[in-house]
Structures are given as C-alpha cells and as structure tokens.
Amino acid sequence: MAIVMLILMNIAVMASIYFSIFLIEMIFGIRLDPQSITGLAILAVIVGFSGSIISLLLSKWMAKMSMGVRIIETPQNEAERWLVETVAKLANKANIPMPEVGIFDGPPNAFATGPSKSNALVAVSTSLFDMMDTKEIEGVLAHEIKHIANGDMITMTLVQGVLNSLVFFISRLIANIIAPKDEEGNPNPFAYIAISFALEIVLSIFATMIAMWFSRYREYKADAGAVEIDGPEGIYYALAKLGQIPKDQIALPAEMKAFGIVGFISELFSSHPPIEKRLENIKRVARELGYNI
What we know:
The chain is an alpha+beta fold. Helices cover about 65% and strands about 5% of the residues.
C-alpha cells in the first residue's frame, strides 16, 4: 500500500506541474524558458510548491492509509468516549473546530495532520493507553491540538515549498552559468543536468537542516501551548515516560515524524528536539505561567 501511495503521489505531483505550466503558457502566453531568469523562477515555484501542497491536501488520507488509522465516529468503549470528549474540550480551549479523532495500532505515539484548522485529524496509538494515565494522554492531546491551532501543517508546507523552490532555482542557475556552452551559447544538456543534479543534492541537505530547525521550533511552541491550555503536568510526565523508551521503539514512520509527539534522527536533522530540552522548556513556560513543577 505504501508503494502504491508513493507512486500515486509522484504521478499527482508531475501531473500538477505539467498542468500548471500548460495553464500559464495558454492563459498568459508566457513560455517558461528555463534558460531565462523569469522562466526559471516560475518553474522553480511550480516545482517547489507542487509536492508540498499536494502532500498537505492529501495528508489526512495518507495518514489514515499508511498508519491504519480508524476514525472514531461512534465511540465503542469508555476509552474511546473519553478520547473524543477530551479532544473536544481541548479544541474548544484552543478555539479551533473539532478535529477528527482516530486510533491506530503501534508503539506509543500520537500525531496531528490535515490541510487546515477546520479539516484536521488527531490520532493516538492504542499502546499509549497501556503506558500512560489519562492526565498524561490529555497532555499529549493538548500538544497535538496546539499544532493544529498554530497552523503548523500549513506553515511547514510553505516553508518546505520555499526551500524546494530555492534549491531548484539556485542549482539550475549555477548549472546554467558553469556548464560548457556551444557556439550559440546554449549549455551542454548532459553537463547541465549533471551539475544541477549534484547541486540539488548538496543544497537539499542544507534545506533539510533549515526545515528541521523550524520543525523543532514548532515542537517547543506546541509544548508551551499544551501547558497554556492543559497545565504542565500532563505533557511533562508524558514526555518523561516516552524518554525512557528506546528511540527505535517509539519513532513514527518517516512521513509522519514531523507531526508526532516524538521523532528521532540525529539532532541536527531531527524533526523534534531532545526530550530533555523539551522538559526544560516546559518547566520554564510553567514557571512563567505561575505553575510549580
């Protein structure tokens, strides 16, 4: 299923790129020549934002399919009823519409996703109920609700789109300058492709570092927001418990890490800060709000 979804996503991205180029050329009469600054800039924006926007629009569907999320439409037991009621309470405190609520089988974790505040999903793993009490789970839910209230999914899409566009633009601009030219001044196509591809790889590394830095900043903000709407105890002790579990046992799949409660790579390329630093941040915010922790 994951492979099929990846293929469909790539097809959708490429189709949107070609369709956008076709519309621009047909409606505005602009021929997108990648050898001109204007043409290259427009292409870079189209290519850079297409994948990010499509991923955002399909984020809920992808999460449900890839994670096997079951949406709770009618609670089947007391735990599900409590989960839906708690999400509703926190959403009301955060002044956002009620998101969809789902559960999935897997290691203890949770995530939020969706294309907008009014079309979002909060999902928690069944194993989270096995290791945490209700106050700790409520803290986790408060963290995810604040991701939605802060518009983090949309903001990450914009950041990723800008970075993708810059990588595409700069790599091809430099390749056009340094690639060998023929007598008419046109760059050798093989050298142009090779140089731009190599530059894309290098620039993408730096772009990923920037995107992950912003993702870590979002996590600190969501933790602080959880303290504001639910107090510090829940999110603090939930993270403390998660910090005692081996990292490979609680990390979400790569496509969902940026929106989960925990996620790991090396710190520089990680979507989440180290739990120890998050705990210190929570204590600082709690003290500022008058809590004793």
